[in-house]
Amino acid sequence: MTNSVCVLGAGSTRYGKLNESIIEIALNAAKGAIDSAGITPKEIQAGYISNVFGVADKQVHMAPVLMSNLGIPNVPGLTIESACGSGSVMFREAYANVAAGFYDCLLALGVEKVTHTGTTQSTTLFSYCSDFFYEGGNGASFPGLFASIARAYLTTHKATEEDLAYVAVKNHDNGLLNPKAHIRKKITVEDVMNSPVVASPLKVFDCCPFSDGASAVILCTEEFAKRSGKPYMKVIGSGRGASPAAVQGRADITTIPSTVAAANQAYKMAGLRPEDIDFAEVHDCFTIAEVIDVEDLGFFKKGTGAQAAREGATRRDGRIPINPSGGLKSKGHPIGATGIGQVVEVFEQFTGAAGDRTVKDAEIALTHNFGATGASAAVHIFQKV
Amino acid sequence: MKDESIQTQNKFIDSAIKGKILVNKCRNCGQLMLETVYYCPVCSKSDFELVEFDGVGTVVTHTIQAVAPEGFEDLDSYAWVVFSVDNTPIRASGFLPGIKVPADLPIGSKVKVTGYDKKHGLSLQKLP
Fold it and tell me: What was the ipTM of the complex prediction?
């Protein structure tokens, strides 16, 4: 690696049920990132796009279509899919191409549109992200897969369903401060516990919503960023990991090996330890996921992540703020966009655009995003400039 | 070179229909893995002895879903189950009809493979 890589601009649509086409949603986020970076599309040398279910809105081969609609049809684009982790995995590839010197400036954009398909079809589409022969094909939905992980966790460690509820309450509190969040609703532990069961032991408020939305960032060399005169942040750590695709293939169902591997690589590259991170955006598709994430990322010892949520250690004013954006749980989960949305949150935090949800004095932040039940994952670490 | 189609899933299904779990035993290193794995994760060889184990095992974890994926709406309440296959280090998963609440299937319960349903996959039954 040669180039120091920076995030120069960031843009995001609101997450939720959107009426625009998937290309229009993407264009809205792209415009936000381009304007934020103070560049013109002509300065973009490549487009990296993450998307999973474009076919649901009659559009695959997304990247060239988006490049054409940005008025740069001769700029090469690439569409990357890695289930719910598509955004972070795509970001890693975009990062690597700038670091390697192939490009000085590129667009990294994630987009998804699924809400028009309805709950049953969305549930089915998401099940295709599993190891289908063993999981979706045997009747497991995605909530079901994470529910099986939750049951294993609650059986193995000293934790309760009520502990999980504290994750949802905290992320909804944060989401109330995010004008682009999908679900802006204050909830209590009782609300979570009394909400209908989706897949035992997970209830409605343990689960993130199906969301539409797009997020985009401009990635560039530090030289390019300095020339722009605009605020930027540095990418100082990047890691990728993998796990057995099916839950049944993991010796310990209460940890996600891809997260551990990706985090170790990112910490090593940055020369940092978990205690050096000021806040993190982690993959909380379900409350149990955040509990496992904060352990796998090294913020809390194995088996204590649920207790950390209950004790408030992950709140914005806690020891390590987790998901100040509201996370997937409240901000929403447009799966192709989620990983980039996390980077947008860090950018807004570091550039004074996060408003009341700003994490005080934060200078180092981590993003963590995985695909499916963690078969693929990426972790990135950012430094405020 | 002879062009042979790899059809690991069909072999696994044929065994499941008989109530068995089909396992690859690596002739090079002895590693056991589900038959659908084509290269040994330990030594990367692809020379296996096929071994059928009784499809009996112990429930490791499970869930009961309120919203089932398409194709499973016709089933009454069922559990999706991960179970460890007896006498192996292997885990498999399937669907177990008739489970309505978690108390119906405590972790550690014994289950057995009853077949392979074209529509619903590997079917299980709870053992007394």
Answer: 0.95
